[in-house]
Design a protein that fits this description.
The complex is a heterodimer of chains A (417) and B (219). By secondary structure, chain A is α+β, with helices and mostly antiparallel strands. Helix content of chain A is 53%, strand content 15%. Chain A is elongated. Chain B is globular, with a radius of gyration of 17 Å. The chains are: A alpha+beta (417), B alpha/beta (219). At the A-B interface, helix 1, helix 10, helix 11 and helix 13 of A face helix 2 and helix 3 of B. The complex binds adenosine-5'-diphosphate (ADP) and magnesium ion.
Chain lengths: 417, 219
């Protein structure tokens, strides 16, 4: 029998047993919906991680030391790094003393950064300006403040828990929402700073940085060199975040070895910080995305097996009720293959219906359950995978009953009442 | 010789062994019209099913158009059934959900005929049995005699040279039965080989030769 005839025969059979067909289609659809949902969310996560990799630059290496690094050390280190590398240093956050027009600010951190901070994972819109190397050289008293979008704000109840009467304080986040601080003066540790730039962070949905870069602290950035200038003299504990972007994955190894030998040359041969190529972070983020969703895949698999058993059950029942039909077809010249194909095609059609229904259900699930559903873009490979999976399941489970049907002897099938 | 059988035996292994066919030898020439008669259970259908390649003998030799059939694989057996043999059954065995036209088209769907030629030929066959106005009816909407005419048209679909009819008039009134016999005789005049099982002496008399069976043997 030719394929169009097989399809129309199968379709007629499916339509003449609507309830029975619906039940097996439904079971398949649940499985497909789960897969469609999971794969869509997963591919979206992977795409975000890829975008994160793009904005982070190629060949990035991160480390963190509990020591200060001077600008001289910065220049020495930069010279040992592969040609064309960007090196960014960032201090820890200890200064928490800031006043704006007599109001004591709280809930923020001050970090010293270099202009090279902009070279990687810089997702901000800049109003005013960011720092330049003159600010670093001259230890300018300038500041740049991050403003997060108003929407999706989480309430911080600890603010009220630790509230001490008589010490009225203004959270910086609240201040920057009410007042445009650009070109205003803030006093930090008793010294006056001019706000020269406002960094506007994107909304959470559009922020493609991976978790490591995505601190949502309220920061006041000041030039790296200025930070060391105003650091309290009693402090003997420092943090420096070091970030190198080499521009090419092949230079990562060299960057790691230069970095570690430089740090040893400065802080002793037993100094051994953990130096992470950023691609491990990305790999970890991918693994995490998979771990978060793999139980869903398992549920989908169970549903697919249930659907497959449904198809198998129905195909078996159909073969009992159509034994005589099989006999007639055999008498008219159908071969064993013709009978086998007929039942397989019928099961594949059920699977196809299951895939279609499943994708509709999966789509609805995404609209109502997934984070940032509006960002979700549907890939053809997910659709193709869903269809293939449904077809493969119905094929595998229909194979045994269809084989049994094809094995019936023509006379026996014809005598069947 | 279209059909040549030697020492055909069919044994059913139920509680005891049962010889439904016991050493049947038979030669049928092209263009013969044979009717097989005998009491119920004497093995007529068993013989016909073996001749139609729906069943296999336990032992003995069966040559169809000079070809031994004993070791034919399913593919070849099915093709031979499709292209050389047309079946007519007592209970019509039409597909209840298919229209009359689609029922007649069914054997051609298993063949190599281009799809576009199938329905025109089915219509032509339907006209030949005088039911062209029933093309879109289902078998349930037809009388027994009409159903059997549809079954005849279906049997002719792939232009077989042998028609095997197992009590084709068994479920029909005598008028319809006579019509079917007439149709078979007309086919026989067109050099078709016809083997018909029947209980009815009058119908059997319409054939050129009558073979009588008893207890699995030709007598
Ligand atoms: N599949 C079977 N298993 C056991 N016995 C069978 C089977 N088919 C037919 N028989 C027996 O073989 C004998 C011949 O049957 P059949 O050829 O159908 O007779 P009839 O001449 O009435 O057409 C009968 O006694 C029947 O009971
Ligand atoms: Mg019989």
């Amino acid at each position: 029998m030719k394929l169009p005839d097989l399809i129309s025969t199968g379709w007629a059979e499916i339509r003449s047993h609507k309830m029975r067909s619906f039940l097996s289609v439904f079971a398949i659809a649940i499985g497909i919906a789960t897969f469609f949902y999971t794969l869509s969310v997963l591919s979206q996560r992977y795409r975000d991680i890829d975008r994160s990799a793009q904005i982070s630059g190629k060949g990035r290496v991160d480390t963190f030391i509990e020591k200060p690094l001077s600008m001289d050390q910065y220049n020495m280190l930069l010279r040992t790094l592969p040609e064309g590398s960007s090196l960014s240093l960032r201090t820890g956050n200890y200064i928490t003393n800031a006043i704006y027009k007599g109001r004591v600010l709280n809930d923020f951190a001050i970090q010293g950064v270099l202009p090279s901070f902009q070279d990687s994972a810089f997702v901000f819109d800049v109003e005013g300006r960011f720092f330049n190397w003159k600010d670093i050289e001259n230890k300018h008293r300038v500041a740049v403040i991050i403003v997060y979008p108003r929407d999706k704000e989480k309430r911080d109840f600890t603010r009220y828990l630790f509230h001490e009467p008589g010490t009225e304080q203004t959270p910086l986040a609240d201040l920057v929402k009410r007042v445009n601080l650009l070109n205003q003066q803030i006093s930090i540790n008793g010294q006056s700073f001019t706000v020269v730039g406002i960094l506007r962070a994107p909304t959470v949905e559009k922020d493609f940085r991976i978790a490591r870069d995505m601190e949502h602290n309220q920061y006041i950035f000041i030039p790296y060199s200025t930070w060391y200038d105003i650091i309290p003299s009693w402090r003997d504990y420092f943090e420096t975040f070091i970030r190198v972007v080499t521009g090419s994955e092949s230079k990562t190894g060299k960057a790691v070895s230069s970095l570690s030998s430089f740090l040893r040359s400065q802080f002793g041969s037993d100094f051994d910080p953990i130096i992470n190529p950023f691609r491990f972070q990305l790999k970890f983020a991918r693994q995490q995305a998979w771990i978060n969703l793999r139980s869903m895949i398992f549920i989908g698999l169970i549903a697919m097996i249930a659907g497959g058993i449904g198809i198998m059950n129905i195909t078996m029942a159909v073969i009992f009720s159509r034994t005589r039909e099989i006999g007639i077809r055999r008498a008219l010249g159908a071969s064993r293959w013709d009978i086998l194909f007929q039942f397989l095609v019928e099961a594949l059609l059920l699977g196809l219906c299951g895939a279609a229904l499943g994708m509709v259900l999966g789509y609805l699930a995404i609209l109502h359950m997934a984070d940032n559903a509006d960002q979700m873009t549907f890939s053809w490979w997910v659709v193709a995978a869903a269809v293939l999976l449904a077809l493969a399941t119905s094929f595998v489970f229909a194979l045994y009953p269809a084989y049994q049907a094809s094995k019936l002897k023509p006379v026996d099938a014809l005598k069947y009442e | 010789m279209v059909i040549h059988c030697e020492h055909l035996v069919k044994v059913y292994k139920t509680a005891a062994e049962f010889r439904a066919l016991d050493d049947v030898s038979l030669d049928i020439k092209k263009g013969d019209f044979i009717s097989i008669m005998g009491p119920s259970g004497c093995g007529k259908s068993t013989l016909l099913n073996i001749l139609g390649l729906l069943d296999e003998p336990t032992s003995g030799e069966y040559l169809l158009n000079g070809q031994p059939t004993a070791h034919m694989k399913d593919g070849l057996r099915s093709r031979t059934r499709r292209d050389h043999i047309g079946f007519i059954f007592q209970s019509f065995n039409l597909m209840p959900k298919l229209s009359v036209l689609q029922n007649i088209a069914l054997p051609m769907r298993y063949g190599d005929m281009p799809r576009s030629e199938i329905l025109p030929r089915a219509r032509e066959l339907l006209k030949r049995v005088g039911l062209e106005d029933k093309a879109d009816n289902t078998p349930q909407q037809l009388s027994g005699g009409q159903c059997q005419r549809v079954a005849c048209a279906r049997a002719l679909a792939n232009r077989p040279e042998i028609i095997l009819a197992d009590e084709p008039t068994g479920n029909l009134d005598s008028k319809s039965g006579a019509d079917i016999l007439e149709l078979l005789q007309e086919l026989n005049r067109g050099k078709m080989t016809i083997i018909m099982v029947t209980h009815d002496e009058k119908i059997a008399a319409g054939a050129q030769r009558i073979i009588r069976m008893k207890d699995g043997k030709i007598v």
